[in-house]
Write a structure and sequence with these properties.
The chain is of the alpha/beta class. It has 19 helices and 13 strands. The strands form 2 sheets. It has a 7-stranded parallel beta sheet, sandwiched between helices.
């Protein structure tokens, strides 16, 4: 000990995310933050997913090892499919079954790798992992890629381990505020979302429900890390501690730096997008991206496209045709909008696009990663949530006035081209409304884009890991 500073020990941390890029990327960002402090990271996933991750910066490659575990095959999983984006959503239950087959090879890795493993940071899907780590004397951190407010909706872990108990007995229950959130809050599902999410409380082909997975993953951890910060949701982070009786540590929002996202340089992707954006005035382009996980139904894609057309506004749509689906853009849409719209079908460098001053709004499915990326650059949101936590995120963001939801039918979730066009016009052409939302989004960018503030959260998380290891 010198001047009261304790010698910092370097830890060996294993990281094991669920097989969805919306999980793998935040787990990688957290890994990079810890590696930059001199800790050794073993990032475990399946071979093809590891190949598709963004390149690790050269200064960190000595600290991060990518550990491939082959995914057990399953008749229902298409060949070479290893992530949720490689298959239609009805097949994901079989991916969970295959993922559970990684239990044996992962245990073997944890037992035999050197140096010995100090901590494992794992995801909701690995409900079987805590007892294995416990037996090997490895400390366990459950990392939630959901925001604390959305996560608090699911209630205490014991309730989840019971497949949600009576709370999840019918969809109407999920449209009412949770009794365990002791302050006024907007966190409820709309009826169409509640019907869709109900399956999360039912056993699927993997033999267990998603809720049960989450419950056991939390119940077995030593520490719960959350992709969040107190400036955004202090009261929900405190509530999670009360609900679960575990230390809850916000790791910050892990914003992606535009240099770090990799790809696009070699093939001129960014240059051709940038040339297109440069033709437009500041704050006039709508950037549209609906994530890689969920395929919206054809009628909603059609209305979205025709709403963009009706609005007469310039737009850049990062369009990924969903795996295993037959969803198409409407006939003639691209030709008719060619003078002011760009449909980009290859990989899109999203943070770079959002950082460009021509972008005035972000039309998003409201996944937490996308919300963070949009608000990091002060872009107000037009939200059209489709699955899991997206609706809950959208309610909170609307309450904060950083974005609003496209008006939809409560029963079936449908919306019209008119409601799409009206939302766009309200945000980009109505001066009073637009000013409010831009101002609030800008405030949020002061939190997310504040590097010192965000890295301070990683420092605190590191201190928890060091302390837990003594």
């Amino acid at each position: 000990v010198f001047w009261g500073v304790m010698e910092k020990e370097s830890l060996h941390i294993v990281v094991f995310p669920w097989l969805a890029f919306g999980h793998m990327i935040p787990f990688l960002e957290l890994s990079k933050c810890l590696a930059s402090k001199g800790h050794r990271i073993s990032y475990v996933s399946t071979p093809r997913n590891l190949q598709r991750l963004p390149k690790i910066p050269q200064n960190l490659t000595p600290f991060i090892s990518l550990i491939p575990l082959p995914l057990p095959s399953h008749d229902e999983i298409p060949p070479n499919a290893e992530s949720t984006m490689d298959m239609s959503s009805d097949k994901v239950q079989f991916l969970k079954k295959a993922y559970d087959g990684l239990q044996q090879p992962l245990s073997q890795f944890l037992e035999t790798t050197s140096p010995v493993v100090d901590w494992i940071i794992y995801d909701f899907s690995s409900h079987w992992l805590p007892p294995i780590a416990e037996k090997l004397g490895i400390r366990k951190a459950f990392f939630s890629t959901f925001k604390a407010s959305s996560f608090s909706f699911f209630g205490p872990a014991l309730n989840m381990m019971d497949d949600g108990g009576t709370t999840w007995a019918n969809p109407e229950n999920l449209t009412k505020p949770r009794e365990w959130i002791p302050f006024p809050n907007p966190i409820v599902y709309k009826l169409h979302e509640a019907k869709a999410i109900l399956g999360g409380a039912q056993k699927n082909a993997s033999g267990v429900s998603d809720l049960l997975r989450i419950g056991h993953s939390i119940n077995g951890c030593d520490l719960m890390a959350v992709r969040s910060c107190t400036e955004v949701e202090a009261e929900y982070l405190q509530l999670l501690e009360k609900l679960h009786g575990k230390p809850v540590v916000p790791v910050g929002l892990l914003p992606i730096s535009t240099q770090d996202e990799g790809g696009g340089e070699e093939d001129g992707t960014w240059q051709s997008i940038k040339d297109w954006l440069d033709k437009h005035r500041n704050g006039t382009v709508v950037y549209v991206a609906l994530g890689s996980e969920v395929a919206p139904p054809q009628d909603q894609i059609t209305e979205l496209a025709l709403g963009l057309e009706m609005s007469q506004m310039p737009f850049l749509w990062a369009w990924r045709k969903p795996a295993g689906g037959s969803v198409e853009l409407p006939d003639g849409f691209e030709e008719r909008t060619r003078d002011r719209g760009l449909v980009w079908t290859k990989w899109a460098p999203q943070p770079r696009i959002l950082s460009d001053n021509s972008v005035g709004a972000f039309l998003t499915h409201s996944g937490w990663s996308s919300i963070i990326e949009g608000l990091q650059f002060g872009r107000p949101l037009i939200m059209v949530p489709f699955a899991v936590d997206q609706g809950l995120n959208a309610r909170v963001m609307a309450a904060k006035k950083v974005g609003f939801e496209i008006a939809r039918n409560d029963e079936d979730g449908s919306f019209t081209r008119t409601s799409v066009a009206e939302s766009l016009k309200m945000l980009l052409q109505d001066e009073i409304t637009g000013t409010i939302y831009r101002r609030e989004a800008k405030k949020m960018s002061g939190i997310i884009g504040n590097k010192n503030l965000q890295s301070h959260y990683v420092d605190e998380f590191e201190q928890h890991l060091q302390a837990g290891n003594r």
